[in-house]
Amino acid sequence: MKKSALLAFGLMAANASAAMILGFGVEADYLAPAASGNFTYKGSTTAFDGATESAYQIGAYLEHPIPLVPNLRLDYTSDMTFSGMGNDVSLKQLDVTPYYEILDNVVDIDIGVTAKTINGKTKGSTEQTFNVVIPMGYVGAAIMVPGTGFNVEGSVKYIGFNGDSLTDARIKAGLKIAAGLQVNAGYRYEAMKVSDHFDIKADATFKGPFVGLGYTF
Q1: How far apart are the first and last CA of the chain?
Q2: What CA–CA distance (Å, rounded) separates 40 from 195?
Q3: Which CATH class is domain 2-216?
Q4: Closest to 135 (Cα-Cα) out of 156, 119, 120, 113
Q5: What is the largest CA-CA distance in the chain?
Q6: Domain boundaries along the sequence of the chain
Q7: Nearest to 125 by CA among 46, 206, 38
């Protein structure tokens, strides 16, 4: 009897410990971005008209207790097609971000690096596709209001060199509505300034609001 009780207690303690040190979450958002500025690929230029388009973004993260091994976050953005003078430009993104959690309390702070893959297409008199991978720095932060289920989160991915830069920034507010489930609303801002790399020249911004759901396991 005592052995059974000790075994049950040990299993409960192990499960509780795992819950405290392992973290996994997913989120899915509807995104409504608009593009401004211009984008050129291999001489085909588009001057964006500022119209709002629609897309979706999906994110997932895994946090674990293994020392020195980074946590992992994945972010996917579906095809965003922007029209303008000259051509249509479609962009699809996949971000892979290993990161370390340097503060985990009421305030969370993460730092890491991102490999951003951009699959793009320009369509006008001719159709051209491109695929580039860009390394970026990553910083994320979150503030939880104890006892309310309300939190504010933000992240910035950035690289800059010799006057060229790429920025991908997000801020959102979340409210827990059930165990593990929360509703989110936020804003995403991307800026691309490229003089001539990967046959791309650009001075453009892509920005807009998003709404969605998140679940933490």
Answers
A1: 33
A2: 10
A3: mainly beta
A4: 113
A5: 80
A6: 2-216
A7: 46
